[in-house]
Amino acid sequence: MAVVFTGGSHAPPAPMTAATRSHRAAESGVAKDECLDLQVTTDLNGKCTLGFEGTSSAAPLAAGCFALVLQANPALSWRDLQHIVVETSRIPNGLETGWVRNGASHHVHHRFGFGAIDCSRMVEAAQNWHTVPEQHVCVEQANSGPAPFFGGHSAIQTLTANGCQGDPANAIDRLEHVQLHMEVSHPYRGDITISLTSPHGTVSEILKARPNDAYAKGINFTFMTVHNWGEDPRGVWTINVTDVAPQNHRGNRGVLHLWSLTLYGSAPSGDGRRDERVNVDTNKLPGTQEAQDLSRHQMKKVIDTEEKSADNVQIARDNKVEEKRVIKKKLSLKRDKIGRDSHTNLELNILAQLLVGDKKTPHNNDQRASSDRINELRNKVDNICNSFRNDVKTRRLGKTAEKRKINRNKDDTELNHLINEIRKFMDKVDK
Question: Could you tell me which residue ranges the P/Homo B domain spans (predicted)?
């Protein structure tokens, strides 16, 4: 679906100054003209490295980004995360050909998916994200019958899909995942290539030729593509199964026996309004235009736009989390100052748990609680604070009258301020 920059091989982004290229070449040990855009990360013995690559590098980097996104918005579903990846990923560089803008205006590539993930843009999107509609599943079955093909030739069939319109439980007008199930017989499976073309002209390269794959029982498998993300599934889908071996090579003869599509996506929007979350530079509704190859000039415009967007990311500060931290800190200071009474410390710990959403407490401040639960918490807070006040007054006994008066005024002022802050905080939770 997307990629992460690691220490692997990346084409050098443009522009890269001669000084930068020479510096990176010296550090990475490759020739200056072959210098790659490598990700610097930590290494053993307190050193840095440019050579940490592969899934061992990409997986934790991506996981870290997703963790930040979920911290910004814990209510996101797995589908929301995938939508955010699609909407915020960036073209890594302008030197890589093969980029396509699909029918929903998302740029996509067979090697890079929707691009390189951008953690800051993902977090920014997550903070204002609206959960995507319920996922629907629509099955479209091709009824073309068996289609033979030989070396150097193809079996091409079409399927006209309606996106299960008329079936409210399964209707789709905006795609996410597309599964292609097919059964093909062939004496040398590695000679087969498969492509799927959507009604908008987006071509998904389902299977490449594999010269060393000599399996003789063909294919009975379900493939998946996300390259049609956001497109409307209604229209003619085309499958192309090709034997890339020369004609009469090994006596190849294959047959495409059957195929079907399982479409995953969201239900019709009803009023046809554009989804404001979709970040595209077109006035057309997503999924209603033809796919197109991106030229170098078009890629440069996209990259410039995405770089400006990345430079202007606005990540809102979580005031509620910050306020909870401040109150917890004040409670800790108050607890240290008031004394060593275990009963009072226990009550303050309970109060702190109520305010900061401790795991042992059924209340979760990140979710909207019912008014009954809020009232219950308010009562608990009042009881704790009243008990706290009484304990403080009890500890004043035995002091001189002058000190009792000074401490009483001081403690009452601080405690009343604390109670007011707590009540204000609970009012915000209630909203």
Answer: 131-269
